[in-house]
Amino acid sequence: MIQDTGERINARTVTIAARGSSVATDDATLVAAAKSGDDEVFELLVERYGRTVLLTVLRITGNREDAEDVVQQSFQKAFVHLKEFQGRSSFSTWLTRIAINEALMSRRKAGGGARYPWVNRKQQKKPTWLRKSPI
Questions:
Q1: By CB distance 3.0 to 4.6 Å, which of 60, 110, 126, 132 could disulfide with 103?
Q2: Fold of 11-113
Q3: CA distance 126 to 30
Q4: Which long-range contacts (C-beta less than 8 Å, at least 24 apart) are formed by 126-135?
């Protein structure tokens, strides 16, 4: 783990630590470095969580193209609002929540509905009181 010695943590230090076999970096260290303006460190977070977030979003959107768009929007939103991340939850939880919200918004905009976004709208049964009467 990288110790905070008061010196600026840069992308090279974190990259070496993250990709090295003997040194592990935690999310807090990476987030702190990314908050200080190091874009390359944020790329490490994207590499670390990209697949997990994609699989989560794919369950909501139902297709890979929409899921990839949502993931890109989610990481962009996380990058823009990174300074607002307070660390009350893990970074992965915060990022996943952003992605889920983006996926739900994407479904709403596409007309997929917000109530059961993982169910195809054509497959949803209407309540009996909404069905057309035979009369």
A1: 60
A2: Rna Polymerase Sigma Factor; Chain: A (1.10.1740)
A3: 48
A4: none
